[in-house]
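Weekly modeling sync, notes
Attendees: S.R. (lead), two postdocs, one rotation student

Agenda item 3: backlog of single-chain predictions. S.R. asked that every request posted to the team notebook include the full sequence so nobody has to chase files. The rotation student volunteered to paste the first one in as an example of the format we agreed on. Action items at the bottom.

Example entry:
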Amino acid sequence: MKTRVDVIGAGISGLASAYFLAKSDIPFEIHVWEKDASPGGLAGTFSNGDFTIEKFYHHFYLRDVALTELINELGMGDDLIWRPGSTGSYYQQQPYRLSSPVDLLKYKPLGIIDRFRLGWMILHARRHKDWHELDDTSVRDYVTRVAGERVYRTVWEPLFRGKFGKYADSISAAWLWCKLIDRGTSQSKSGRELLGYLRGGLGRIFNTMVEFLESRGHQVHFGRGIKKLKSDADGRIGSIVTDEGEFDTDFVVSGVQLPDLARILPDSLDSYKKTIGEIKFLGNVCLILTLKRSLSDFYWTNISDVSFPFIGIIEQTKWASPDDYAGKHIVYISSYIGQDDPRMKMDATELLDSYLPYIRKMFPEFSIGDVLEKFAWRAPYAQPICEVGYRDMRPGITTPAENLYVCTMAQIYPHDRQVSNGVEMARKVSGMVVERFSEESES
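Predicted structure, as returned to the notebook:
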């Protein structure tokens, strides 16, 4: 009889875990359960009929080795494109370019001394080797200590308040440190940031892994979630309750967000449920516009104005070619919000109507007639709140139920939610399942 593995969620960590398990020499029977109709989770894609694109904006860095290795392994290496990105800042009703060290020295919202202090802070972070030393320090305390109060107030506070809201003052400096490291090591010789994307969208990765699993006799159940995990007399997960019925299981790998996992845990894991429930999340609403013409001068524009209802405007086709998107210009407008924010229930038209005064404030020439299509995607648990001391809050891969493994973006701290980190964790989780199986077989 084959050893059954049930994987919860067909996002990158769940589906990649299933893929790596299927490639092992052990004759597993793998079932992936995904409540949505398609794979990918936060990295999922959709088609408008002319092209396929991510529901939420994505790029990757030169150091994202796990993802690039997977792309090559799946035979897509020739479609892996690296191009310079361009970053801007919208501050006090003015756009500023911040794509290179030279741009930093020209950043007028800061005086010349504070510009050098900001540059020094970035260099200081990149030379700092041990993120653990920053875990107990807030971003605010770290930036003000290294670069000064004006740098924090002008550059970082608007961004952190715009993204994290009431949690802005409690975010760990280790999280910012890792963001600076990831971006700082993805540069060309001229100092410009190099970013990668997969032509045709990340959905190609997910679809290929699904095809591989099914070709090996495994099953991916779309539109079918897991309603409950049940424990056996030994405290293991003995069975799963799904939309298709109840099934005995040998191993369970959860790739869904922690609040979703907590809802299906058995009563025997109430203490563990309480522990992971202490981690807070923000949701994300992403409005996608396809336009007749370009909107911005930059690929990525940070909004340094807390009165705005969104934190960033990402024009995909200022980085990728419009030719990859049927000649259209693609713009993402991103907002991080609480789960009870009314925007979680707004459709694309309602979101655009509410954002329109702010878009026109930034781009006076923008016309509603420029909009060809609009789409809205939302995720209630898009960003874990990595507060000071998060190292001690971060869940491990193993759980009190010895055959239940957890593999989510809330565990990759101090890294942020890069797809590559999900691949790397999936490889680790699959190795742990194989090792556990081998130990149990020998005993």
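Discussion: group reviewed the output briefly. The two ends are 17 Å apart (CA to CA).
Action items: rotation student to repeat for the remaining queue; S.R. to check formatting next week.
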